[in-house]
Amino acid sequence: MAGATTAQRGNPGSARKGKGSGSPKPPKQPRSSGGSGPQGPGVQRLVRRLRHRGPVLLTLLAAVLLTGGGSWVLYGSSWLRVEKVTASGTQVLTPEQVLAAAAVPVGAPLVGVDTDEIAARVRSRLPRVDSVDVVRAWPHGIGLKVTERKPVLLIKKDAKFVEVDASGVRFDTAAKAPAGVPVLELSAAQSPSGRRFDEERLLHEAVGVAGDLPEAVAKETVQVRVGSYDSVVLELTRGRTVVWGSGEQGEAKGRALTALLKAAPKADHFDVSVPTAPAVSGS
Question: CA nearest 201: which of 225, 226, 218?
Fold first, then answer.
C-alpha cells in the first residue's frame, strides 16, 4: 500500500493527464456583429433584397431589351418602310400631281417620315390645295387626303380668269371660266367712297357676298358688280338683276332672294338690300 502511494506522488503529471489537462484548446472566436463573414447579417440582408427586387430588375432588363429591339425594328430593319403612297380627295387636281408635290421618301423608315413637312410641301407647291392630311398606313403606306379650294368668284385678267376662294385667296388662273362661278366687275373709280374703300377692300366685300349666296342662286349668278361698299348688284341668267346692297346680312338676303325667285319665277328685277322688305318687279 505504501509503494503504490509513493508512485502516485512521484508522478504528478499523470494525475493531471487523468483529469483531461492535456494540450491547451484554441480560444473561442467571438461572434462578429458586423456581418463581415460570408454568412453575416449584412450579406443576408443583401440576399433578401435581391430576392425581393428580382422581378423588378428582370422587368427593367426586359424593357431595355425591348426598347433596343423596337428601335431596331422601327428604324434599322426593312420591315416597316415606306413602300406605297396614295392620294385622295382631288377634284381638279390629279392624284399624280399631289404625289409629285408631296415627294414622300419611298424606302425610308415609316416612323421617321415627317408628315407635317410633307403637308407643308404639298400646300406650297399646289396653291389649289386648302388642306392635306398625311397619315401613316402601317406597315408600309402613307396616305394623303387633300381638300381643294373652291372658287366663289372670278377676276378676269386679259383672256384668263383668276380663281378666288371664300377667304379671298387668289389660288389659280384658268384659261376658261369654271361653270357656275360669277365674274367680278369693279367700278369703284366712279364711287365717291373710292378713297375709303379701295379695290382690295371691295374685292373682299364681293367675295363675302358671293360666299353668302345659296348654292342654287350661285349657279345662276353670272356677274357680281361692285360700285361701292353698299352698292353690289348681281347679274343672273336670263337677264335678271338683283340689288343686293352692302355685304351685311348676307344670309338673310340669300334667304329672301331664294323666296322671291320661287314666288316670281318670271320677274326680272329683285331687290333684297333690305331683307325684311324685299321687292320684285317686271313679272
Answer: 226
Other Cβ atoms closer than 10 A to 3: 7
**pLDDT tens-place string over residues 140-157:** 999 999 999 999 999 999
User: Would you mind telling me the total number of residues written for the chain in this entry?
Assistant: 283
H or E stretch at 242: strand 241-245
Dist. CA 113–CA 120, nearest whole Å = 13
Please return the burial class of 98, using the count of CB atoms within 10 Å of its CB with bins 0-12, 13-18 and 19+. Answer: buried
CA neighbor of 268 nearest in space, from 247, 223, 246, 237: 237
Rounded to the nearest 10°, the torsion over CA 278, 191, 161, 98 is -80
Backbone angles phi, psi at 109, to 5 degrees: -55, 130
Side-chain-facing half-sphere of 16: CA atoms under 13 Å: 8
Burial tier of 209 (Cβ tally within 10 Å: 0-12, 13-18, 19+): buried
The reply to whether the predicted model has a pTM over 0.70 is no
Tens digits of per-residue pLDDT, 85-125? 999 999 999 999 999 999 999 999 998 899 999 999 999 99
Q: Give the pairing of strands 84-88 and 141-148.
A: parallel
Q: What is the DSSP string of 54-68?
A: HHHHHHHHHHHHHHH
